Amino acid sequence: MRDLMPDMPSRLEISDLAIERKGRVLLDVPRLSLDGPGPTLILGPNGAGKSLLLRCLHGLIQADRGRVLQDGLDLTADHKARQAMVFQQPVLLRRSVAANLDFVLKRKRLGRAARKARIADLLAEGGLDGKARQSARSLSGGEAQRLAILRALALDPETLFLDEPTSALDPTATQAIEAMILRASARGVRIVMVTHDVGQARRLAADIVMMQGGRVVEHGTARQVLEAPKCQASRQYLAGWLVT
Amino acid sequence: MQNFASEFSRATQLVLTGDPDLWAIVVLSLQVSVCAVLISAVIGMPVGAALAVARFPGRRALIILMNALMGFPPVVVGLLVYLMLSRSGPLGVLELLYTPTAMIIAQTVLVTPIIAALTRQVVELLAEEYSEQLRSLGVSRLASVPTLLWDARLALVTALLAGFGRAIAEVGAVIIVGGNINHVTRVMTTTIALETSKGNLALALALGAILIGIAVAVNAMVSALTLRAEQEGLRHA
């Protein structure tokens, strides 16, 4: 399907997904389908289950019950290999910037010349040219997160999950990362991103998933959710109330 | 007092004039300890890293045992290795007793738990940090071991140096299995013990000064590596 329609992102679906711990519902999503053309942003207060949902979609956490489907099929190792995730705190290997990218490209069994060319392309994409030999751990917060995104993109993922990638960054660094996310989305990568920032949702989202208490309380197009939220929790959150 | 002064003067002379007997002892000591540390690294690092990432019943007990072995009394290690290598022991046929090889074996037994325990500690902390990211990149738990060892390299060099410090300063085990034979198994620590008892303080002092110099150099290297790790934000505490 993706070969026939290269610009159409893969479709993610959730069916009856649930996680409980000590009798408390952490996640309960009977049905969710992410099949729109642009980035999906997941919004909600702390403890709403946003990051947990992201980890379930990526297969990092096994739910107590339910299914995650990609393009109509249960998530397999092959699917997972075509997904990537960027975390709130970028986890960079204690190596140079280029070696962080090379680590992923080696796993793709690319030859030395192909890897070198790809690294140059990626560094240019993330505005990190000239920093190839610098220790990745000495990058600024924004640069480090850009490198984490580049490393994820080096996998050529069909789906890119981002867990609050700009929460600790200033507006300039945020802007650079949002531009990278939009470029990846334009290339057909499905973007699923968690954020607390309503402004960011306005700038990036094609559709928005609102969560509260482990449940999806609303899912719709960005325009629909931002301008005419259907549920009370969404209205309060978007109005800036301290929703818990 | 005058005697001590003349002993110090002779000791200095021994070091500065490159006394062949003294330097033969120093070289043998370094050879034995470096060999023991390298063998311990080959055994201890993968074991420590595997214990850091693997999850199996009895893992906790193994970690406690390994940590306990770090403080194993050297004379007891010497005795156990002696029993293994003695003529009537299971490895007696190899005729290794009172050879530098026996001393390497004893030091390896002493140093391996230190390197394995420190490796486990360092790699476990790093594995916690890397776990989700490596899984996300499709790296399995076992396949993550080389990545973790490589990324913990600075801390692991510190572990190696700590092991070397223990080996080079060791006296109890090597005197039992080496026998302190002149020009064969006499190392710095055993020579210091023997020469002091004989009243030959000059040689003991010269070797003591070199041993202290080595200890200071090792600690300086550990500090430099730790500082570098801190500066590059590599330290994981």
Write the layout of secondary structure elements.
The complex is a heterodimer of chains A (244) and B (237).
Chain A: E1 12-21, E2 24-34, E3 40-43, H1 50-58, E4 65-70, E5 73-74, H2 77-81, E6 83-86, H3 97-107, H4 112-125, H5 141-153, E7 159-163, H6 171-186, E8 190-194, H7 198-204, E9 207-212, E10 215-221, H8 222-227, H9 232-238
Parallel strand pairs in A: 3-8, 3-9, 6-7, 7-8
Antiparallel strand pairs in A: 1-2, 1-4, 4-5, 9-10
Chain B: H1 2-16, H2 20-53, H3 59-70, H4 74-85, H5 100-136, H6 144-151, H7 153-168, H8 172-178, H9 188-198, H10 201-231
Radius of gyration of chain A: 18 Å
**Runs of chain A with pLDDT <50, length 5+?**
1-6
Helix/strand/pairing category of chain A? alpha/beta
Q: How many structural domains of chain A?
A: 2
The helix tally of chain B amounts to: 10
Give the CATH H-level superfamily of the largest domain in chain A. P-loop containing nucleotide triphosphate hydrolases
Proper CATH architecture of the largest domain in chain A: 3-Layer(aba) Sandwich
The chain pair forming the largest interface, with residue counts per chain, is:
A-B, 21 and 18 residues
Strand content of chain A: 15-25%
> In terms of quaternary structure, what is this?
heterodimer
CATH level 1 name of chain B: Mainly Alpha
Largest sheet of chain B: none
Counting DSSP H or I runs of 4 or more residues, the number of helices of chain A is: 9
Major β-sheet annotation of chain A: 6 strands, mixed
Radius of gyration of chain B: 21 Å
How would you summarize this macromolecular structure in one to three sentences?
Chain A has helices at 50-58, 77-81, 97-107, 112-125, 141-153, 171-186, 198-204, 222-227, 232-238, and strands at 12-21, 24-34, 40-43, 65-70, 73-74, 83-86, 159-163, 190-194, 207-212, 215-221. By secondary structure, chain A is an alpha/beta fold. The chains are: A alpha/beta (244), B mainly alpha (237).
Structural features, described:
The complex is a heterodimer of chains A (244) and B (237). By secondary structure, chain A is an alpha/beta fold. Chain A has helices at residues 50-58, 77-81, 97-107, 112-125, 141-153, 171-186, 198-204, 222-227, 232-238; strands at residues 12-21, 24-34, 40-43, 65-70, 73-74, 83-86, 159-163, 190-194, 207-212, 215-221. Chain A folds into two domains: 12-91 and 156-238, Rossmann fold, CATH 3.40.50; 93-138, no CATH class. Chain A contains nine helices and ten strands. Chain A starts with 11 loop residues before the first strand and ends in a 6-residue tail after the last helix. Chain B has one domain (20-231): MetI-like fold (Orthogonal Bundle). Chain B is built from ten helices and no strands. The radius of gyration of chain B is 21 Å and the shape is globular. The model of chain B has no long low-confidence stretch (mean pLDDT 91). The A-B interface holds A 55, 58, 60, 80-81, 83-85, 87, 91, 93-95, 103-104, 107, 135, 137-138, 151, 155 and B 129-130, 132-133, 135-139, 147, 150-154, 232-234.
